[in-house]
Amino acid sequence: MARAHVACCVVLCTALLWPGGGIAGDVFTGYQIDNQGEYYTYLGVRTPLTSGESNLQPFIQVMGAGLGYTFKDNGANRKAEVQFTSPSLGIKVIQGPWNFIGFAGPQFRWKQQDRPTGGRTNESDVGVYVQGEAFRWHEQGTFHAIVSYTDLDNFVWSRLRATRLVHKSEQGCCSTYLGWDLAGMGNKDFYAVQTGPLVQVPVDRFYLTLKGGYQYTQTFQSGAYGGVELYFPF
């Protein structure tokens, strides 16, 4: 995980100093874990390549992440840990309250997993990563849809999220949004589905999200998960 986050922090500093990127950029990070110890954590930055008010905005994004999960192999449970860094180029299209986003780039991955005969494998790979998003913002609530794909293990991840304002504060803190998540992910070796409520609280420029709920995985079937996310524009 250190390799992914070190690389992402370097790019974060570069993005914040980018000549055209002093506005409309985003930083996002989060951590999620389930009752079986499977986890996912990430740190990312997205910054525009040009300034201005155009409805067509090119940008760069870099995300570093790590995950640990358990999958079945010939009836036996095997653990895997993956760290990756994904630098990408993308386009954001603004249509009224809607943002449509697409980006692609290489994915640099480091993977360890249990061997059937004991010990662990160590792999370093480079693949292709693509992601699409649709986001609608309104003071009364939001809608966000994401789907991503990497050809490394043919892994797909997707999520639908909606929130609704339930308490409005005129101060810097703390309006409250309640919402719901529905996410699915997997490949031929592993899949999981998650759904549950979330609470989002804007604090000045920061958006703090707490989430949790029910999870079903191919390996452990029913379970629970929880997590925290932090987002801020710059």
At a glance:
With 234 residues, this protein is mainly beta. 6% of the residues lie in helices and 71% in strands. The radius of gyration is 18 Å and the shape is globular.
Secondary structure blueprint with pairings:
Layout: H1 2-16, E1 26-34, E2 39-48, E3 56-73, E4 76-95, E5 98-114, E6 120-138, E7 141-150, E8 155-167, E9 176-186, E10 191-203, E11 206-217, E12 221-233
What does this protein structure show overall?
- The protein has 234 residues and is mainly β.
- 6% of the residues lie in helices and 71% in strands.
- The chain contains 1 helix and 12 strands; from the N terminus they run αββββββββββββ.
- Strands 1-2-3-4-5-6-7-8-9-10-11-12 form a 12-stranded antiparallel beta barrel.
- A hairpin with a 3-residue loop joins strand 11 and strand 12 (221-233).
- It starts with a helix and ends with a strand.
Low-confidence stretches: none
Mean pLDDT: 87
Radius of gyration: 18 Å
From N to C, what is the helix and strand string? HEEEEEEEEEEEE
Tell me the overall shape: globular
Largest β-sheet summary: 12 strands, antiparallel, barrel
> What gap, in angstroms, lies between the N and C termini?
25 Å
- Record the strand order, biggest sheet: 1-2-3-4-5-6-7-8-9-10-11-12
Helix content: under 10%
Helix and strand composition category: mainly beta
